[in-house]
Amino acid sequence: LRMRTLSSRILVPSLTLLLVLLGVGGWIMTFNLTSFVRGMMDSRAESLANLLEKISAPYIDNYDYPSLEGFVQETIKDQDVAYVVFLDHKGTIVTKSSQEPEGTVKLMRYDRGIKGQGDKEIGRLKLGFHEHTLDRLIKRVGIMVTGTMLIVIALLGVGMGLVTRSINRRFGSTFRNVANCASNVQSTSSQV
Q1: Is pTM, for the whole model, over 0.85?
Q2: Of the candidates 3, 21, 113, 190, which lies 20 to 30 Å from 105 by C-alpha distance?
């Protein structure tokens, strides 16, 4: 690619630099937003795990597993919650309406000991949050950043094209005037 015109010598490096700067800025923005949302989701999951841990202790202590089942059913109505499982002190699952998935499902997992009187562990809580909300957000932000970059580059390209075209016209007319003056001087000097 040879840059012969003044327009191309200004436009190509400027738009390339802008593309790089917008790309880096978009990546940084996406990374920061993703970290922020992940932190919010983690905080929400931690709060829910703390709540379930605290309210479940008396039910596990009294073997009131149907009430725990009600907590599980209400909790998994939230689309971000993948599973909630309560276990007794032996590690036996005491709730049936939600199961911990097998394999490498993309989840934020939380495992808590449930303590009864005297700080003795009487059971466990296992909670999983889906990361699909985070994945959708990353895709949406990626599309927005890419679209914004393309629009800004297109608008700036058109704007800079018009400016450099105007500059080229002014330089062209100036050089034509200088050339005309030079030819007039040459013809006048040849007559003398």
Answers
A1: no
A2: 113
